């Protein structure tokens, strides 16, 4: 069996003797006898490393939808981008992997500086002055942004665009049971949000507007229009974005967002069946004291050398307890380090090129798909890297048939967005070649025929 | 005395990091300072896709006028930069990391290999169950295993970390009470609790009621009785608690809380101490979160990712977040299949997808390697190591609650502060010079000048001896050297003591803010 305990029996005996004990069970004398487990755990005995790998590999083998077997055309916040060898090698360095929250900055400058660089990269990308050191994922970043918005505006009504990822909206609803926020879904019309008119002041005046850019269906929303609603009502504007698309798009910060959030998986993190991913969060300077999660700041050491440290700690739960801005403690630092490395690899020109390649591949695939008899675009609104189509047969069936042909066809929209089970969300990344897309379109035509 | 000195043999301490290549005292430039216009590292696949111009792809009003200014570096410089950063970072792989409450045990490399399997790492989370049977089956095994370890009925694997698990648990508590008629208003937590507990209570829509600890370091039963009423939704406990002590009255606490209709929440931060010995479910807990990155050795990643599954007793199962994976015994070929389902009264969702799934896979690999027998040994040796440290250092430092501890021990350096002005912080910084990570300091809040040491089971006796000698040396210096000399530490680390006050006073959260804060060279 595998064991990671170094002690020999003699050493254990010697240590027990030092404690004046004769058996190891005596270490647990404080545990009342009546509560103790009177048997061994009903788990298999320890296995050697080859057996562990074989056990796990058997699970891996049963996953047919792996991206080295089915060509991936699914997105929805999880994208099949290239992960270069350099990102894997650097992000896998055990100093980053096996350290913890930098409580002792003198021996944690590696992670701290990587976080500082990550914050800088995300702030520039989102067009805002401050980004935190990560949250769990896109959904949790969105929940935290809404919490900040409600606290800052003093109003608990939140207008949530239907174009926010359905899972993220579900988590908002789940968490609203505790916070009491009043969530109001604002529907999409032809792929974009149409905000209601509101008399000001009113009881239902929003404290927060939440919109996607691009939204879940890949469509580009009118951010200046959302900003105008916020200016009329005094609400904060929270934009949930796709950071790869921002290689081409104006940053939401530049367009007037107070808070920008997003999923950062696409910067070097494996699909991994959904986790661990990376919650991105940036805000305007005026909200920095309400920022959730950790923040790294630059300072100096006693000799005046540049150094980094987690800062504005008085916001955090270990100091502020029930009055903290958030309960987040452990976040997704390793994924943030990974994103910093990946964004370093991409660089200024590479990110623009990546977004452009996604946009070209998406356009190419979309034009070919809507030429298929019975397949129509869900909306005419412009898209960057993802789009929805209506299919003549249920989308689930399309996915099933396409899997047999070697493709993960996309994400069925289910009963969302008035598609009646006939909506399919499709993403095309820079990894897909013209030949692959041609084969996908041919298989698609066959599947829906 | 037998066992008092563990360095009698030939082995040197594996966990002492004084040979670490923390070279030089130069500041590492940022990625942005390494940037040179025109340099690049990126390359993409040749695709043959028509190269439309941006004007043909997007309306002008959406297109940015300039590319996002990131950095422009060669691959070689990128590798050198992050490699040098890694040399400025302490880690478990480098040396002992006795950071109390964080369970910084060795992370087996086989788990890294598991997380990299293409059949696990390359799977899109929205792929249908028919194409992801392996992942669903794996998750069901994780759930069943965690339920056996904790003595609970079912679990959600969605929460991404301990704090997320806490909020999930509180929302479950709220949904349960709501179904009984009213959500109630108060949640009790001890004064020794982790800070995430009260913060999560607030987000769960509850008011925090704090109960003090008694002279033995456990929940004060009289104080508890005085705050228990039918407006109490539940109590959050860590057992063993943050003093490293087992709450001996746990059965009485459970009975008292249940009597007023409240629920018991188990903060699993300290689960490592009791694996295979006693189970939260058998102690009377209704809701249990686990920190897989602590107990089950998944890497802490510099501050995450973690994973915080929440297991519950039978009556709370219908409220769990969904969708959940489940096994369907399929009569046809005799082989089970797996599907998603959402519990009838589910509180909803706590993650973008299914949880930190690759972390779950790592944890399962760790559990399989140890086995049921091995997990019990993990707890035994973790507790043995902590008690050895306690006994060895009890003459050197104050031990505020000097009785047998569990997996960690809380010492106090208040005697050194009173006599010489040497603070726990100074001791922590001085220990860094000796090649060890510091213990957790100033926590729990109820112990003055607290030094919370959790050696974990993976540190050898030789490493414990070296750690004890280092702490004894530091105490000797505090007593014998001129006052104030301790505040010089650390001296041999990549940077010396860091000005935290300045960082908060003049916030510089990005390189751009840093550039603005420097005088213009022209």
Query: What is the string of helix and strand elements of chain A?
Result: HHEHHHEHEHEEEEHEEEEEHHEEHEEEH
Question: Main beta sheet of chain A: strand number and arrangement?
Answer: 7 strands, mixed
CATH superfamily of the domain at 113-367 in chain B: Type I PLP-dependent aspartate aminotransferase-like (Major domain)
Strand order of the largest sheet of chain B: 1-7-6-5-4-2-3
- Elements of chain B, N to C (H/E): HHHHHEHEHEHEHEHEHEEEHEHHEEHHH
Mean pLDDT of chain B: 94
The number of E-state strands of chain A comes to 17
CATH class of the domain at 113-367 in chain B: Alpha Beta
Helix content of chain B: 25-40%
Poorly predicted regions of chain A: none
Number of domains of chain A: 2
The name CATH uses for the topology of the domain at 113-367 in chain B is Aspartate Aminotransferase, domain 2
State the CATH topology of the largest domain in chain A.
Aspartate Aminotransferase, domain 2
- Going by helix content, strand content and strand pairing, the class of chain B is alpha/beta
**How many helix segments of chain A?**
12
The largest contact between protein chains, plus residue counts on each side, is: A-B, 211 and 216 residues
Secondary structure blueprint with pairings:
The complex is a heterodimer of chains A (449) and B (522).
Chain A: H1 9-18, H2 49-61, E1 71-72, H3 85-91, H4 94-97, H5 109-126, E2 130-131, H6 138-153, E3 157-161, H7 166-179, E4 182-186, E5 188-189, E6 192-193, E7 208-213, H8 223-233, E8 236-241, E9 259-263, E10 279-283, E11 296-300, E12 306-310, H9 317-320, H10 333-370, E13 376-377, E14 386-390, H11 395-404, E15 407-408, E16 411-412, E17 423-427, H12 434-448
Chain B: H1 54-57, H2 75-87, H3 109-115, H4 118-121, H5 133-150, E1 154-156, H6 162-180, E2 186-190, H7 196-203, E3 207-211, H8 221-227, E4 232-237, H9 250-259, E5 263-268, H10 280-283, E6 287-290, H11 292-295, E7 310-312, E8 324-328, E9 337-341, H12 357-393, E10 409-412, H13 414-420, H14 424-433, E11 440-441, E12 450-453, H15 461-480, H16 500-505, H17 511-517
Parallel strand pairs in B: 2-3, 2-4, 4-5, 5-6
Antiparallel strand pairs in B: 1-7, 6-7, 8-9, 10-12, 11-12
Helix pairs in contact in B: 3-12, 5-12, 6-7, 12-15
